Amino acid sequence: MSKLSEIHDWLQVRLPELLAEHRVPGAAIAVYAGGEVVDHAAGVLNTATGVTATPDAVFQIGSITKVWTATLVMQLADEGRLDLDAPVRRYLPEFALADEAAAAAVTVRQLLCHTAGFEGDIFTDTGPGDDCVEKYVATLGATTQLFPPGELFSYNNAGYCVLGRVVEVLRGKPYDACLREFLFTPLGLSHAATGPYEAILHRAAVGHLQPDPDADPVPAPIWALARSNAPAGAMLAMRPRDLLAFVRMHLDGGRAADGTAVLSPASVAAMQQRQVTVPCSGLMGDAWGLGWEQFDWAGGVVFGHDGGTIGQNAFLRIAPEQGVAIALNANGGNPIALYTELFPHLLRELAGIEMPVMPVPPAEPSRVDAARYLGTYASEVAELVVSQDGDGRIWLAQTPRGILAELGGKAERSELVHLHGDVFLPAEPHYGVHLPHVFVGDEDGRARYVHSGRATRRTA
């Protein structure tokens, strides 16, 4: 029996067990190794209908879409129609932000690696029409700048919507049409959808949300985020096997399975090159390339991306030196637990990669003087207040704003414990993860940002 056959048999047993343990309604996974793919699914796509999950079911891939958008951008670079280091305004003269100097300076490369510096969690719905991305970019004129372009990493959904608009302008057609013509078609994808009207032609997963942490997941009230955020990950759905067809192209020097040239070898390599270090890792990569997350793990190079939409999550990891890739999709419950239990085993068995455990608070955390960290930090989606009590314990109060508030997000208060340096962890995990919070920068002796993948700026 081959190693991949053993993996398939293991998944048939282990995946249903994990779904039940972590209250995940349904999931599908595909594994690529030795030039072959095995896939498996378990659970249901919708608890209201009971439709079973199969390997051919399509799940939303969320922000993994960003790597597809980056690939569309790199195709234009291959054709000589786009310069990564040119200002965005060369292609979008109307591009505007609240900070005029920043808007004039931001480059395509900075958008690709999340260093453009403007507020990124903006999910304005500009309608379902083919002009929705154009209209979305036109709304960014009042968007505030967190830091000068190029100074720091801060995950930026809005920046990828701007990239999607660059693709539209240079191709002369809507973003969805570009995906279909320049990626779906040459890759021969049979189960990929740019939105609900295509997804409904397949067995389509529905996201599930939990009214409270102890409740069972229930179907989400809507299927997807606004179409205006499609280039950042609002709608793209596919089966894991088709996601791995995209990955194989990136492993094979930019060529599809039939030999079609989709991307140049130089652009494939450039996308995987480190561009910026991430202050806070946890679930995120330790660094970012042009679209791809990069992970500093023992045993070899690993890159990938994750995605999350309304009750759906996706995880993608690639070990290029060993020719191994894993794609996992889930539709609610605690999908992070699936990831942290499935991927270490698969990467170890197939690639000799040791995936590190998530950081956890020390048994006896040290007390620190929190004066540098105290205050209020705010973004479009949350207000964070850091305080210290008389016993020296540090507290983080989070109040959702914007779309997070609209989706029913609740105010939370959690204790932060010191890990090392300026890095703190919540004392209690969220979905099994203690997400690192890193205080970075200096503003009159106080931290300028609290960083948890996004840089949330001090306001008081």
TrEMBL record:
Q: Which domain of life is it from?
A: Bacteria
Q: Which residues form the Beta-lactamase-related domain?
A: 17-338
Any Pfam family: Beta-lactamase
UniProt-recorded Gene Ontology molecular function terms: hydrolase activity
Q: Sorted alphabetically, which InterPro entries does this protein's record hold?
A: Beta-lactam-related, Beta-lactam/transpept-like, Diverse_Enzym_Activities
Gene3D superfamilies, alphabetically? DD-peptidase/beta-lactamase superfamily
Question: What keyword terms does UniProt attach to this protein?
Answer: Hydrolase
The protein's name in its UniProt record: Serine hydrolase
Q: What is the lineage of its organism?
A: Bacteria, Bacillati, Actinomycetota, Actinomycetes, Micromonosporales
